[in-house]
């Protein structure tokens, strides 16, 4: 602070008062600097613990509570809990005691079985007294066997016919007649529907890159290059463009569309470096009972991509807190939901950071744990609705009765806690995020068909993320679009109870025969009975 010495008063008493005021002012500023420094140090320490936890700790977000009450293990009221769980089929009763039945689950009944008889020899069937032993029963044990995949060649033999009498006349038609080949998905290719389905599911369903599949085929004695398989996938995906268009229309027919996206590196993009970042978008919508999962490759993460996809859609949209989705709030007819899983995740981080650094005696339950308790009770209500298999209207009434009062309490707690919490700390950020998105977070109370979080969409993007870790990038924009097509077909099939390989094999066989939009609709996963595509005979 600059002080003009000429302006200082001559009175000694006044000079003393001036000096004291300056000292007080300096002390206050020093205190403010110290407080800000401590807040900064606390924030950096939290970030350091958070990064260490992300590097070396568990990735699970499951919350067990800070300090469970061990006395409950021996309390009499635990008998009520045991009686509740004993109603399940995998529990056994022993007097007044109930425990979970241990051991392996039985093998599926639909698997083919062969019987291998083990019997005693004739000498072993003789008792020591001289009499012959009598068979009175049998003991059966089942073991699971694996038969390696087998390749075979389909030989299509077409007989030729000609007329010996006239030997054919050119103006009366061809002199030689031959049966036509069955229509193929990829003409002039020696890949069958089964082989295309296997390669597609292996890469996009199981995350097995094409170069690894090439090695697997080599072990089976087949030379099948990665380039050839890649070309087949692109061609097969193009043939499915009509199905994708129908799924894009069907996804807009439901009450809710969930949206998420994940980075994707694509090579050979026009006007861009190979190191540029593109994105794989996923949209989940359609009927809640028969959902559609649509993947779409885009060069940008801009919210305009979501707007273009939605087109004239009117209804509920659920996303994370990415700022690009803010454009959806201005679109007429759109109601934008928030995601409780993202809000909860921020409190989970706080709890994970502070778990090892708090005193159990002084602070047995942190503020983050209290917030997680509120959110956990919300999810217990949703779990109750699923357990009772409630429809939309009963779910709506249940939420209004139990979830709404709980949310009001939680908001009051957040507003009371926020002034007492450093805003730049992890806890302060979690509280600020929750309050800033509160109106979006409580929209799910309006309709029983809605969900409190966007987890179904985040689960849908996970297979793509797992696959990306294996094959790292898409070799071209055509390859990225093919990936989007295969992920769409495979994940939508899984969401509708279809086995992915069986479904792809089915549509690859029947797609060349589809001549109308009605034929294409019949091939959508929502309109297919799982029994219709089941493969009982590997042939």
Describe the overall structure.
The protein is of the alpha/beta class and 539 residues long. Among the domains are: 192-338 and 459-539, no CATH class; 339-453, no CATH class. It has helices at residues 12-56, 78-85, 193-205, 210-219, 226-239, 241-251, 303-310, 340-354, 367-387, 392-417, 426-436, 438-441, 455-471, 477-495, 500-510, 517-521, 530-533, and strands spanning 91-94, 97-100, 160-162, 176-178, 256-265, 277-286, 291-298, 315-318, 334-337. The strands form three sheets. It has a five-stranded mixed sheet. A two-stranded antiparallel ribbon has the order 1-2. Strands 3-4 form a two-stranded antiparallel sheet. A hairpin with a 2-residue loop joins strand 1 (91-94) and strand 2. The longest helix is centred in the first third of the chain and has 45 residues, at 12-56. The radius of gyration is 34 Å and the shape is extended. The model is unreliable at 66-92 (pLDDT under 50).
Task: List the defining traits of the structure above.
single chain; 539 residues; alpha/beta; five-stranded mixed sheet; 17 helices; extended
Taking the sheet with the most strands, its summary is: 5 strands, mixed
User: What gap, in angstroms, lies between the N and C termini?
Assistant: 90 Å
The fraction of residues assigned to DSSP E strands is 5-15%
Helix amount:
40-55%
Mean pLDDT: 84
Number of helices: 17
SSE order: HHEEEEHHHHEEEHEEHHHHHHHHHH
Global morphology: extended
Strand tally is 9
Nearest-angstrom radius of gyration? Answer: 34 Å
Structural class: alpha/beta
Low-confidence stretches: 66-92
